[in-house]
Amino acid sequence: MLHSAHAHHADVVIVGAGVSGLSAAHHLIAAGVTVIVLESADDPGGRMATETVDGFRLDRIGQFLNTAYTEPARTPGLERLVLRPFAPGARVHADGRTLRAGALTPARALTSGSLDQARVGAALARLAALPEERLLARPERTAHAALSSRSLGTTLRPLLAALLRDPGLTTSSRVADLALRTFARGRLAVPEGGAATLPGLLAAALPPGTVRTGVRVRSVATNLVTTAEHGDFSCRSVVLATGARAAAELLPGLRVPGFHQVTVIHHATATGAGPLPWDGSLLLDGDPDWPVAHTAVMSAVDPTRAPSGRSLVTTTVLGPPPPARTVASRLARLYETSTRDWELLAVHHTPEAVPAMPPPQDTRRPVRVLAGLYVCGDHRDTNTVEGALRSARRASGAVLRDFGIPLPAAPRAALPVAA
Prior knowledge:
- The protein is an alpha+beta fold.
- The chain contains 13 helices and 20 strands.
């Protein structure tokens, strides 16, 4: 094990206590490396934030996880994470009717009389069966161009927009295929208790004093991190685990991608009010003329997110906040019930919610800048929670290789999924 008695020294200083930084800390500590994590905000977690309002737990960005994700189970500290899955597939409201994407086999979809569902089911089944390297070897274009050539836009367009959080489908077709493959192999899910549960578990499982909040980093080098008000931190290596823009400010030359903005709107209603989908379905809006991308009775997916007798409806808009009346009107149509008595709890708009991934796109961007300086985050991998965790494992692995330390074996047990 590597030791130092200096209060401002560690083998590795990690800048940023979001999901990537916290998970990188776990991988390094598991290998016997001393770590300090510096975070400018008052709390760890980054964009995976949840606020509590009148007993409701409200996510700021509303990121999806998937039961087919492998990285959470390989990340130390997440053993107690429980996933709350949506109902299988997703409901798509388009052309005045509602279809379910991904929940039926092609044969069952044909039996139900839906040719569209059968074709989508067959396409998803093919993607689920393909190895990842085969998908990444396909010709690359935009997701929109690829979708147009497959003539499956009515159902898959809103699904892809939701998975990629990209309303224009400007994302690389390879990234889109990976997202659909994961969707077909598992079920969309959220962390029990809110998005902040995931980084909260990671932070709580680290040794006391590892994470230091309220620390603004001014500059980084391979052996030194300087801060605005907390002195200098000497080290053997630095890992930048901030967002893409903050990383580029500390390390000029890093490319800053474009971003997709996301608005999450939370409403409260009485439990049992109206014909809402109490089975925990994700409802996608297939009409591009309306601002809503998807919506769900989130308390039906995860009952811990609403107090007794109340229900939480969470709606995502892939863009700036639209007028409240416009959203309420569309939700009334989607849920086929009056929204007049729904209480607006919060509107969260994040201008740089998701790094854009247009073609050409390297889904495994380098994490080693040079010996002693590394970078990780969802902007170095796929722009998902899975990608953020995977980039942290790649970055910590690069640090350990440069230190000459064997990489510890990663756990592979599946995470608990609530029934």
